[in-house]
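Example 3.2
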Amino acid sequence: MKKTDPYIEFTKNLKCLLKKYPDLITMTLSNIFTMRLIGNKTHGDLAEIAIAEFINQYMYNYRSVHVGKDLYRAKTKEEDIKIINEINQVEFPVSLKAYGNGPLQLSTDKSFQMFPRLGRESDRITDKRRINTILKDPAFTDFKSVNVLPLIYNESKKLCNILIFDYDRAIAETASIVREESGRGRKHPVYRFYNAKGEYICEVRYGDAMANALQRGLWTHTERGFGYFDSLTQGWISYSHNPVLIKLFSNALVSSAKGHEEALKVIQRDIKKLKKESGLPV
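Structure, written as tokens:
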């Protein structure tokens, strides 16, 4: 069984759940992206908590744990949440990304091997056997070993999507790898992957031990490479801001733990009601 199989099985189950109960994910994503009204980066951290709780509440055969930032230095994998299959007790990490529609980082390449490995090749690689050899190199272990769950949003249109990058198809259809120098706001060269039609798939950005890990590694583009994603939400869904949630947060921050306990009881009753109305196990 391949390393990513438990995650693939999970995403298939999640896709089925979202298709059957679209209102639940629309509500959750609306609440997540409402957090951008507090700060441009606030929604990313809270999305980790929200998706972990979504799994716990609505996916009866899975359990999720938010890893938390305090464990960052001890992490051996890129992960924000840990998911446990309650049927077979298999655990797997998930890296959750909340990005605007456009550039999307798939892996930080912590061992900084991808870019240097491609640097040993010519600036344009078109031989399929050579490409396969490169992608099987240990330097590209992270190419498909990171379980990334991207929540993509278009803020101007109030649209969102949960898009899963198809690594297997990307590898199978890569027909050329081309080094492209800096330009269009880029300070460093990149290696871009294209299919036989010359269509963009993904790219490896510059990186060695001194490079910025937030920019280094494997990237793609949700607009340019849209054909290499599977939408768990069955396409783009409309979301709306929830101003009541902002009010709830602001009041919670200046109220006591006792008040939080009482508010939590009301919220838990609401979740139970949502489950019952949807026909989910309570």
